[in-house]
Structures are given as C-alpha cells and as structure tokens.
Amino acid sequence: MRGVRKAFGPVQALAGVDLEVRPGEVHALIGENGAGKSTLMKVLSGAHRADAGSMQLDGSDYRPSGPLDARAHGVAMIYQELTLAPHLSVLENIWLGREKRGRFGRMDRKAMRPAVEAALERLEHPDIRPETLVSALSTGARQLVEVARALVGEAKVLVMDEPTSSLSRKDTERLFQVVQRLREDGVSVIYISHFLEEVEEIADRFTVLRDGETVGSGVIGEVEIERIIEMMVGRSLDEVFPQVPHEAGGVALRAQGLRGPRLLEDASFELRAGEIFGIAGLVGAGRTELLRVLQGLVPATGGRFEYLAAAKTPSGLLSEDRKEEGLAINLSLGENLTLGHAQPLLQGPWLSHARRRSLTQTWIDELAVRCAGPDQPIGDLSGGNQQKIAFARLLHAGVPVLLLDEPTRGVDVGSKVEIYRLMGKLAAQGKALLVVSSYLPELLGVCDRIAVMHRGVLGPARPVAECTEHGLLEEATRGVGEVLAATETAR
What we know:
By secondary structure, the protein is an alpha/beta fold. It folds into two domains: 2-233, 3-Layer(aba) Sandwich (Rossmann fold), CATH 3.40.50.300; 251-490, Rossmann fold (3-Layer(aba) Sandwich). It is built from 17 helices and 23 strands. Strands 14, 16, 19, 20, 21, 22 and 23 form a seven-stranded mixed sheet that branches. Helix 6 links the parallel strand 8 and strand 9. The protein is globular. The termini are far apart.
C-alpha cells in the first residue's frame, strides 16, 4: 500500500499511508484509537474505496470493488466485534454468502463439509464440530470459527483486529498457536492490537500509524517498546507510568476472612486512604468476585468487611466489562455520568438538562475526554474515553473507595498513560483505590502495595519495591504458600 488517502467529509482519516507486508509474516499494525488503523484495513478488505494511492497484491495492482471481491483475491478480515450468526451452525457460518447449492437450489451441506473439516483440523481444535451452533461456543472458539472461514476462503492475507480483546489467557495462547501455523503455511497476518506485550510475542515486524500517517516501522525486538510508544503518541514519554506523589492515610476498608459463593475462599487485607492497592492473579482466581462482594453485588458467605470512611455511598465499582455492565452504550455521556446520581440535578421534581450538560462538560474538560459534547452517544467514543466517563461517574458519586477491575482493558497506550495519571491524582486527593489487573507491569508501575490471589486465597500485601514480575507470576500460578515453602527449602 503506497500513499493511501481516505477522507470522510472534512475529516482526513488517512493522509498518505504506506504499508508493506511480506508473505508468511505476522505484521503488527499499531496506533492509538483514531490513528487510522481500522480505516486502512477497511480499504484493504474492500469495505472502503481509497481516494488516492495504490495497492499491490502478489505484484499485481489490487483495487477491490467490495469485501466479496477482496475475499476472492484472498484478503479476509476478522473484526473486533465478531460477525458470526449465533443461530446458525459452524458450517453455515463458514460458508455464509457463498453456499454451495445442489438440485432445486438447496444448500449442499455434504459438498461443503470437507472444506470445513479440513480448516478445523488445520486449527487443531477438536471441540468445534461443523454441525455445532455458534451460540453454544465460547468466545475463543467463535474467534477460531472466524479464522476457519478465512481458511476455507483460501485467504492469503488475514487481518485480525484486536482478536484477543475478549479472550482469556488460555484462549489467547491457543489463538497464538493458530497464528503461528498460519505463518508457517505462508499466510500473511496483519495483527492489530493495543497490547504491546502481545505484539512483542507474536509479530515479526510492525508499522505505527498516527493521525492517519505512517510514522514508523521496524523489526520487533530491534526497537525498544518505549520508542514504539513514543511513535504512537507523538511525544516523548519519560515513563509509561507517571508518578504522582501521594501518601497513605487511615484505613478506609478492612476485610477479614472474606468468602464468596463461588471462587472467593479467604481474603484479609486493609486498604488505606490515599493508597493504590493492587491484586494480581490468574483469570478465575477470584479477584473479580472479591470486588463484587465488596460492592454488594454478590453476597459474602463468610468473614466480614467494613468501610471506615464516612460516606453515604462508600464505594464504587469500575467493571471489567464496561459495555455489558459499566456503561449504557446507547445513552449519551451526560446520561451515563449521572445514572443513579441525578439528585443534584433536580429542579423541583424535574431533572435539569442544562445542569446535566454543564456538569458533564466540567468532567469532559477535567479528564480531557475527546468527544463532540455531553449529548454524544457514549458508544461513539474510543475505549479510553469511555473509561474516563466511567471514572467520572464514580467521582461524581463522591465515593471514597474505588474498586477498579481491569481499568485499562481494551484501551490504547496513550489513554492508558492518562488513566494511570488520573489514578495517581485520585490517590493524592485521598481516594483509596483497589485495583485488579492481569497486566503485571501495570500493577508494578502504579501500585503502592500488591497482593496475589491464588485459587480464591489472597496472599499478604507487600510494598511494590519488594515485588517483581517473575515473582508475582510464580505466586499467581503456584500459590504464595508453595513459593515460600520452596524458598525456605532452597535455603
């Protein structure tokens, strides 16, 4: 792709982008939200027509008339929001729109089945059968059905847009194995991800977009990750995790022997005002259930906890799934901000829309939310800006304790830095933050103390200076007790 340009009205989405992808390589396409990654890939996959520039595929000029024409040329795209029909079978989804027909125009499943079985065998996923309804599959399995659909279409170039954003670590590792096999088979994979640790693990080369332009490219491993981040955000980052001075005060939350109905077995800790307390652990260790018990969404089955801060609403939860639980995607920024806390906006029995707009604009300015205004649907915003509004709702509620579950999941790097800075500012204002994150560098970068949860049991909290990524991971996989016992034996 050379000098590709695309405008939507007065907005120049692509301003002369260059991208070169080699056969059988995994090429990471990196950039913040709004950098032009998705638009560029929609041009490649035929969903958009470029205004200028050129494309070549296997040495020949390439200008698809639409997505079906792109697929006919061997270019397939797997979108972040999967496009499968849940009420259809795996086979029907894989052949959707290009079904083989027999006599009288009936779908010939027998003729279509061998290609589906071959693709699924190639993915080495025996749990997926051609006749299985997609609605019965896990998110990870559905992702693989999308890959199988591309393989049946004999894809030479496969675009994967944020493929792991909804996957567990186990499903992510399985997907990486599939990507490795595609690479070995000569398929070119264009891999879009906010998770730079994934890019380091899976990609061969990278290209960075910023404001619709190509600003850098290189070989993974030859360029420092900090330099890639600088390319993405367009400024020098002294550090990925800004340090905002703050001091711990009195105890804001205390838990003793806390148990939950499913995963939570034993959690004892104290969280102080002005402190950022991190909880590490694997998916399914009980971390999310702990936060939900503390928020009152799930009943405790044993032990006790108490909030010591004097407040009508002592805590607020930032859910790990903002689209399902954290936000009302079809409502405006203002409506989301004041859900459940509209009392200050009342004029007599009526809600003042002018007050709500004014309040929302204050938070937009305070948190540097990039949006068209308070009345814009929140679903139109990037993940990072949605998360800022979710934070603003907790702050508007005036809660002294913030329970943050994966606070930067699905957020671009630049927005992550802004959220880290915001967390530091909140701690400096005396807020108490309890943070669950699967990204260990994040916990090490922003927290004052960290405890590890293993199979529902929360280990002792330690100052972050005493923690290492390797040590936290070992405790998360083996348990704190086993690691300590092994250490004593070694002595």
